[in-house]
Specification:
The chain is an alpha+beta fold. It has helices spanning about 20-70, 75-85, 120-125, 165-170, 175-205, 220-275, 280-310, 325-340, 360-375, 450-460, 465-475; strands at about 90-95, 100-105, 130-135, 140-150, 155-165, 320-325, 345-350, 355-360, 380-390, 400, 410-415, 420, 425-430, 480-485, 490-495. It is about 50% helix and about 20% strand.
């Protein structure tokens, strides 16, 4: 399978990019042109039928007037009156009761044949008046006929030729075309103006701040989503920069911390290998190598633990109810030799309470707190570990709190989305050297030490409290500290209680 060699290569462009401005222009232009043409045709058609109606009424009135003039006259008189008083342009035809044409203003009567069967004549026979329009395919014209029956049975028929609808539309093609052409020009200008007016807010849209300025209401949802995504990307970029800075700082600190024990181990081993150490001092040098290797091992273990916490690689299936009082008892028993060595009294007390979590990780966090308390407490001092349960609304204390983060246990969430208890609490109190107020917010940082020389004497790695903070965060809990210089310290670890 072929793969792109450049992961940052630009994405594939759209196959058929479309211009919104052009689409709006074409849509407005097409719609308006169709509307103009349809309106023009509709107006011409309405005008045609209105004119047809008016012409029909005028022709009927003329036929009735002619019938009144001819009423009571003889056939010859009627012929004379038709020729003298009704010269046209309408066509007048006088028909006797038998349907024979007596007189026609445009043709000889004998050439016209019998008119008795004509539809307008039959209508006049039954109703006294007949009105009919007939179309001639040959001439492509319509002819309007109005027949009036006289009292003596004669008929006077008046007819008028007129254009059909299609012919009328054809005759209006030139003036309508001129009007439509002018309308098209106006529509083109109007379409461009409307497209520009519609696109103006879009063209002024600031991609870096999409919600700024005057935007369409319909675009608010997508613009809000774009704004949220941009804010999220900026926040993620900042987090990545911070993470990268922390990674570099962490790598530098780890390298620095590893150099000291490695130099001691390497130097001591080199001296022994070179025969530069007296036989009676070999044991001392071996002990030094062992202590530094143990320190190096502890540092590596702490680094691996923090890496697993950072990557959330602890198996959630390993979470189970943990008896905190029993865990504290084991921890104190394991660290009692260290306390006796430093002449520090170590005691624990409390009631049985269960926390939901990863037992080895919780035990390491508690062990770090107790071990730190022992190491930073002078001879004759005391370290007390208290285990208790805290209600859901209980506060961690008035000291500095390292906030909790992701939740591995089924903790109860408060209104702010953070766990609200109930809590399983481990409180570690010592009578040691205490922590200066300016150092309290920083003690949970990796490799941070309040006193560099003192830290080396105690043998710590500088990662113990960072592990405690991350372990609490992993379980959805927190850790707080209250301390004053020369008055000892109290660390409070809170973890969500096991449910059920």
């Amino acid at each position: 399978m072929a793969c792109s060699s450049d992961p940052l290569a630009p994405s594939r462009p759209f196959a058929h990019p479309r211009s919104l401005s052009r689409s709006i222009f074409v849509a407005v232009l097409s719609f308006t042109l169709v509307a103009v043409l349809a309106t023009a045709i509709a107006l011409v058609t309405v005008s045609y039928f209105a004119e047809e109606k008016r012409s029909e009424e005028a022709l009927v009135m003329q036929a009735r007037a002619c019938a009144q003039v001819l009423e009571g006259r003889s056939a010859d008189e009627r012929v004379e009156l038709i020729r003298s008083q009704f010269p046209g342009p309408e066509r007048f035809t006088l028909v006797d009761p038998a349907g024979v044409v007596v007189c026609d203003t445009e043709a000889a009567g004998t050439a016209l044949g019998n008119h008795g069967s004509r539809p307008e004549m039959q209508q006049a026979v039954s109703q006294g008046e007949g009105v009919l329009v007939r179309h001639s395919d040959t001439l492509g014209q319509d002819t309007l006929y109005v027949a009036e029956r006289l009292q003596d049975g004669y008929f006077i028929r008046v007819s008028e030729e007129r254009l059909s609808l299609l012919a009328f539309l054809g005759s209006m093609a030139l003036p309508v075309g001129v009007v439509v052409a002018c309308a098209v020009l106006l529509v083109v200008l109007l379409s461009r103006f409307l497209a520009s007016r519609i696109m103006r807010p879009l063209n002024r849209l600031d991609a870096s701040d999409p919600l700024a300025g005057d935007v369409y209401e319909e675009m608010q949802p997508i613009l809000r989503r774009i704004d949220q995504q941009q804010r999220q990307l900026k926040r993620q970029n900042e987090e990545l920069k911070q993470a990268e800075g922390l990674r570099r700082e962490f790598s530098a600190n780890v390298s620095h911390e590893m150099k000291t024990p490695l130099q001691v181990i390497s130097g001591s081993a080199e001296m022994i290998a070179g025969g530069l150490v007296a036989p009676e001092d070999v044991r001392d040098f071996g002990g030094r190598i062992y202590l530094e290797s143990q320190r190096l091992r502890a540092l590596i273990n702490d680094v691996l633990t923090l890496s697993r916490l950072d990557e959330s690689s602890f198996d959630a299936a390993e979470c189970a109810p943990v008896d905190m009082l029993e865990l504290v008892r084991r921890t104190c028993e394991r660290l009692r030799p260290l306390a006796r060595e430093r002449q520090v009294s170590l005691a624990f007390d409390g009631a049985p309470v269960y926390a939901e979590g990863n037992e080895p990780l919780i035990e390491q966090a508690v062990s770090n707190l107790v071990e730190n308390a022992i190491r930073y407490t002078g001879e004759g001092g005391a370290v007390t570990v208290q285990v208790e349960s805290q209600a859901a609304d209980g506060a961690a204390g008035d000291g500095v709190v390292a906030e909790g983060g992701s939740t591995a246990a089924d903790a109860v969430l408060g209104d702010d989305g953070m766990p609200s208890g109930p809590w399983a609490v481990v409180r570690v109190q010592d009578t040691g050297i205490g922590i200066p107020a300016e150092d309290l917010p920083k003690i949970f940082e990796r490799f941070y030490r309040t006193e560099k020389s003192r830290s080396k004497e105690t043998g710590g790695t500088g990662l113990g409290l960072a592990i405690v903070k991350h372990a609490a965060s992993y379980h959805g809990g927190d850790v707080a500290v209250e301390s004053a210089l020369g008055e000892g310290s109290t660390f409070t670890l809170r973890l969500p209680q096991a449910t059920g």
